[in-house]
Amino acid sequence: MISLPLLIGLIGIALLFDFLNGLHDAANSIATVVSTRVLKPEWAVAWAAFFNFIAFAVFGLHVAQTVGKGIIQADVIDAAVIFGALMGAISWNVITWVLGIPSSSSHALIGGLLGAGVAKAGSVAIVWGGVINTVVAIFASPAIGLLLALMLVLAVAWTSLKLTPIGVDKRFRKLQLISAALYSLGHGGNDAQKTMGIIAVLLYSQGYMGGGEFTVPFWVVLSCQAAMALGTLSGGWRIVHTMGSKITRLTPAQGFCAETGGAITLFAATLWGIPVSSTHTITGAIVGVGAARRLSAVRWNVASNIVIAWFVTLPAAGLIGAGVYYATRAIGGAF
User: Fold this and answer.
1) pTM of the prediction?
2) Are 120 and 325 in contact (CB under 8 A)?
3) Which residues cross the membrane (predicted)?
4) Which residues on neighbouring strands pair with residue 72, listed in sequence order?
5) Span 183-232, pLDDT tens digits
């Protein structure tokens, strides 16, 4: 069992990651509603942060269970593994934030955890079922978001035949408030649970749960939801610009379709306990609504750069996580 001060320090780093997750992924929740000028940026982040926070009241903790027990074997986890995982994820998040690349905070965390876990115990540390589901979700979530957004664009077109363009714009400026809220709810439900899983498995592995079953204490739930909401409230303007205008230009109706398609995908994944990327999901949905207008409406060079970042995230964060683990072990000390 590690010392209480070290435990508190690691929990603090985990909550810092959660805060950065909200900061980094604020664009996912607000880019469309800002780019369509339905809300001013400061109101948009407040709207998103509120629904980020209350997500714990809507969803169970299936994703937290997956991250806590379904990526790396729980008996492999120790303070050095958790530290390596968090530093791998935080480092990659900072790098991509500075460059304005909408990479996945979720997969950065999972990559860091895999890198540190494998560095300690080799491939036997991996829970292959959970990892395979996560990797499949890397490809499936943007595809599902894209398809749902395309279907919604078609439905919106049919239901708006008798409306003038101004009437359509007026209707969906109101409805986009709802779609943005739903997407923020799904984002808070899926993403905050990943940090809950990290903190809970640290407590469990170090005997701070009294030898009982793996659970997520309620104080951990509230802390993680609050940290993510505060991060979202701080905004992530570099990535908002990329997501909201560089991929394609959006109208309120298109923003509604993108957010609703993304929200449905996140809701389903969260209820099934699959840690997906809100970044991947909303990017696929935005590409879908842009392509529905015409293929040339999508800036495919920007979209392709984002896709490359998706492929690089897991191994890059994993390598950093492994490197931090080895350095931590070499230094020794409290770890």
Assistant:
1) 0.86
2) yes
3) 45-64, 76-95, 107-128, 135-158, 218-240, 302-327
4) 126
5) 989 989 998 999 999 999 999 988 887 767 888 999 999 999 999 999 88
